[in-house]
Backbone:
């Protein structure tokens, strides 16, 4: 659907979740994210055809961050749009360009802490990635894409969910395309139920991204896995994102003080029911919990100790 002049939302379903990419079209055309390996041929290219845009006419492909469901379709899109300029933030570029590296570093670290993905999810992660595709342009934030006299968008650096997460801000219509930069109280299924935790890996950066969006006060907030939000819905969702951070901070500090020492697996077992319940990819809460433990370490409230079989955190007063 076209949400505003030149701004299109391309909707589909990914497993149990709603799933969206975006097309911005003026004199030039920009695609936001490529989905998983099968998304371009199954969803994106048919949508381009429906609006009369040949894939060869795509000028830019902007990858908002390094998660398989946001850049796994790069190979198929590069084949269909060989002239498009593929771009992502410099901090996420190494993962976007190297499938083995992202499987090892972004998704593989859980195993060392005893909170790994199930075998079927690991198989899905690998299968959702197409071939490696080199980027043409590395971004740092604040760049402007001038797509036409009536359509200019600014690149927002929105870290926290990933170091190099970016979004787009269209000031004329006050639309923010943020995909996974803010995640409320968790990811939703098609009925609007929270099923997965909101993974962020840097607490301060994530809070900063939410507050930047609060300052911009978008008229429309466009994400990858939630319905289109407008007006007060935007304000509530951004506040919900901050409230989850506050809850997680309290729970992690409370568990660590009561137990004196926790592993990530032990903390996940204790904190998960208080912050959830979550029924899909529950282990991804471990990244969020680890971020809060690191926050406590930085504040002097905890010590991180590497032991055989994983890491433990000890209460430090």
Residues:
């Amino acid at each position: 659907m076209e949400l505003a002049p030149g701004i299109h939302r391309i909707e589909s379903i990914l497993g149990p979740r709603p799933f969206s990419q975006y097309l911005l079209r003026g004199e030039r055309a920009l695609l936001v994210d490529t989905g998983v390996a099968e998304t371009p041929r199954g969803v994106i290219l048919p949508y381009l055809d429906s609006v009369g845009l040949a894939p060869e006419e795509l000028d830019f492909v902007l990858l908002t961050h390094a998660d398989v469901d946001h850049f796994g379709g790069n190979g198929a899109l590069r084949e269909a749009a060989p002239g498009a300029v593929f771009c992502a933030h410099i901090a996420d570029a190494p993962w976007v360009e190297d499938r083995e590296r992202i499987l090892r570093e972004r998704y593989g670290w859980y195993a060392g802490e005893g909170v790994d993905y199930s075998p079927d999810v690991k198989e899905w992660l690998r299968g959702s990635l197409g071939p490696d595709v080199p980027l043409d342009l590395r971004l740092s934030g604040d760049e402007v894409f001038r797509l036409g006299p009536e359509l200019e968008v600014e690149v927002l650096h929105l870290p926290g969910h990933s170091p190099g997460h970016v979004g787009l801000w269209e000031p004329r219509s006050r639309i923010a395309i943020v995909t996974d930069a803010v995640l409320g109280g968790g990811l939703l299924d098609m009925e609007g139920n929270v099923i997965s935790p909101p993974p962020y890996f840097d607490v301060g950066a994530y809070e900063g991204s939410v507050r930047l969006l609060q300052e911009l006060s978008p008229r429309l907030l466009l994400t990858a896995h939630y319905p289109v939000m407008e007006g007060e819905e935007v304000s509530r969702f951004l506040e919900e994102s901050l409230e989850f951070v506050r809850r997680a901070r309290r729970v992690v500090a409370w568990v660590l003080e009561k137990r004196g020492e926790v592993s990530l697996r032990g903390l996940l077992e204790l904190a998960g029911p208080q912050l959830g319940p979550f029924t899909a990819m529950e282990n991804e809460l471990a990244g969020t919990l680890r971020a809060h433990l690191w926050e406590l370490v930085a504040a002097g409230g905890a010590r991180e100790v590497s032991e055989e079989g994983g890491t433990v955190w000890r209460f430090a007063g």
In short: The chain has a mean pLDDT of 97. The radius of gyration is 20 Å. The CA atoms of residues 257 and 315 lie 6 Å apart.
